[in-house]
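Sat 14:20. Reprocessing the chain from the morning session after the first attempt stalled halfway. Input below, unchanged.
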Amino acid sequence: MDGLTFLSRLQQDSFPVAFFDPQYRGILDKLGYGNEGEDRGKARSSLKQMSEDIICQFIAGLNRILLPSGHLFLWMDKFHLCTGFTDWLNGTQLEVVDMLTWDKGRMGMGYRTRRRCEYLIILQKQPRRAKGVWKIHNIPDVWLETVERNGHAHKKPVRLQEELISAVSNEGDVVVDPAAGSFSVMEACKLRNRKFLGCDIL
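Finished this time. Tokens:
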């Protein structure tokens, strides 16, 4: 299912936590490496890319379904982290409350420096609260975890997502991921006894 259609069917103010891993178009459009569809760029460019307008629509939909003080974990690449993403939050009740760096343990693409990390922006829907909402206090802000891609170009670290799910939800809660990709969030939910609601396009 299309993720925006999926989000439109979910009840407002109902879920404590969601993940969103956009398929960013920006780095392909603006950096112009010249290798789109070639070598290691082939897997990335074969996925349907999201415009910034589509990303904003996803974030607005996630804002609508999150409970007050609920969390959205937004995966971010270095390009968008450096050039700015806060416009995507306009018109929402979401605020940046923290950031985590995922060290993938292997070298990636890059023209000047080679990327080894991805970033997770931690957003909270107003009212902003930590006490009684965030329950695990020993998660480091740099997380080293190597993952096997297993046929998906952007598989995310299950152990990290397990910890984050446990930090902001209770057993039996529902976790939402409208662009599930490799369904690593679903794997994390199974391991931490949470329910999963998510989709991806074929």
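Strands lie at 15-20, 66-76, 94-103, 117-125, 142-144, 174-177, 195-198.
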